[in-house]
């Protein structure tokens, strides 16, 4: 097992053990994306990610954290395990 996968497994185990973990998912590569949009009354369906860029969403965690500091602490463990930036956001309408 690759070291980053092992470290990520440890973080996920701890998330579940503390009750913070609610849901997570890994996403397929950006090339597998379909973009659906409305334009002039028509629905357009095109290949590829919505935005071109070097970074893409590879997956997400939905966790329950006491506050932003706690959420950032979990994100710090994930970014240390996988070596890529982590974005932290509250669900809309659930800000403290």
TrEMBL record:
Protein name: YCII-related domain-containing protein
Domain of life: Bacteria
InterPro entries: Dimeric_a/b-barrel (IPR011008), YCII (IPR005545)
Record family assignment: Belongs to the YciI family.
Pfam families the record matches: YCII
Coiled coil residues, start to end: none
Domain YCII-related: 10-78
SUPFAM superfamilies in UniProt: Dimeric alpha+beta barrel
Gene3D superfamilies recorded: Dimeric alpha+beta barrel (3.30.70.1060)
């Amino acid at each position: 097992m690759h070291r980053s996968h092992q470290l990520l497994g440890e973080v996920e185990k701890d998330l579940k053990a503390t009750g913070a973990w609610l849901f997570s998912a890994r996403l397929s590569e950006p090339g597998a994306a379909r973009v659906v949009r409305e334009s002039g009354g028509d629905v357009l369906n095109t290949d590829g990610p919505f935005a071109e860029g070097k970074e893409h969403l590879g997956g997400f965690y939905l966790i329950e954290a006491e506050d932003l500091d706690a959420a950032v602490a979990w994100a710090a463990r994930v970014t240390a395990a996988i070596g890529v930036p982590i974005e932290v956001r509250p669900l809309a309408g659930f800000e403290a």
